[in-house]
Design a protein that fits this description.
Alpha-Beta Plaits; alpha+beta; 10 helices
């Protein structure tokens, strides 16, 4: 007959066994929750093993079932450890990539090169750590440092870009001003002969029609001789301004030399060019007032204008010669008419 003491010891051992089994089941449940929390299904293999154990392991399990569960649990835990190691390796690989990126930023060269070089070296050193927690902690610190350095570099780059853009714009404006000066007649403000020749070539190359007006002031030498070159220059400026108003925006008025002007009319047939010559004679020439100290001088100025259209067989030199010939024919006709009146 078993004594009461032995019976109590057996019951106590049984209770301890049940408590241990309950704790063991709780541990398996905790491991299952840990595996479930891993992202990307990394703990799925571990979960499958643990859930299979819980299906056959109950509070009344015998020693054989418990031994089997221990073997299965060991395999599940090994699967979990492998998943954690893989994640650890992924973190280290990411850090290596970041270190290489930092080194690339340094090689690119900027004012933050030394700072980025130091950060890259520290990030590379993290990859040799064994503790995943320490890797995460240091990673978060250096990610912030890299972000701050990149932001400062970006801001500095934008400021530098704005400065260079301003310099570029200023240089462009200076070049445009220089080009304008190189193509402008200093006295009258209209195009100079260089610009006129360029406009003639451009219009001829376009092959869309070209007419020219060759214009010469009548009696201009007498103005210079009588009132002085300053008054003659002022008169040339006035004439140029008034002629410009009679032309289209695309027409190029240039001072060819002395008191001679050329109008380049691209894409223009002879009748339209002749009509422009009529407007100029009517609206520009006639009586001018020259302001002089103590008196105003009234002078009458006219012009002779030769109008010609480029022909298929002509070159530009021949076109200008023909326009000049027409100009002098008109000038001679004017002289002959004036002689008959005298």
């Amino acid at each position: 007959m078993i004594s009461l003491r032995k019976q109590m010891d057996r019951l106590e051992a049984l209770e301890r066994g049940r408590a241990a089994l309950t704790a063991y089941l709780g541990l398996l449940t905790a491991l299952d929750a840990t595996a479930a929390a891993m992202p990307g299904g990394e703990g799925l293999q571990c979960q499958d093993g643990l859930r299979a154990i819980r299906e056959y392991l109950g509070p009344e399990a015998d020693s054989g079932i418990i031994a089997r569960s221990l073997r299965d649990a060991e395999q599940a835990i090994q699967a979990l450890a492998q998943a954690i190691n893989r994640r650890d390796g992924d973190y280290k690989q990411i850090l290596m990539i970041m270190a290489e990126a930092g080194a690339t930023m340094v090689q690119a060269g900027n004012s933050y090169g030394e700072e980025l070089r130091g950060i890259a070296a520290e990030v590379e050193a993290i990859t040799r750590l064994e503790s995943l927690a320490e890797v995460r902690r240091r990673l978060s610190v250096h990610v912030c440092e890299l972000r701050d350095a990149a932001e400062r570099a970006r801001h500095n780059g934008e400021s530098e870009a704005r400065r260079l853009q301003q310099q570029l714009q200023a240089t462009k404006e200076k070049l445009q001003s220089a080009a304008l000066l190189a193509e402008t007649d200093a006295l009258t403000g209209v195009a100079n002969r260089r610009r006129g020749e360029q406009a003639l070539r451009e219009a001829a190359d376009a092959r869309a029609g070209l007419s020219v007006l060759s214009m010469d002031l009548n009696g201009f030498k007498r103005i210079n001789d009588t009132y002085g070159h300053a008054q003659g220059d002022a008169l040339l400026r006035l004439v140029a301004q008034h002629v410009r108003r009679c032309l289209r925006e695309k027409d190029v008025l240039c001072r060819w030399g002395g008191d001679e002007f050329i109008v380049v009319m691209a894409g223009t047939a002879l009748p339209d060019a002749q009509a422009a010559a009529v407007r100029i004679r009517r609206d520009v020439f006639g009586e001018f007032v020259l302001g002089r100290p103590g008196e105003n001088a009234r002078v009458f100025i006219s012009a002779s204008i030769g109008v010609a259209e480029l022909q298929p067989e002509e070159d530009l030199e021949q076109l200008l010669e023909r326009a000049d010939r027409l100009l002098y024919e008109e000038k001679q006709a004017a002289h002959a008419a004036a002689a008959m009146l005298r």
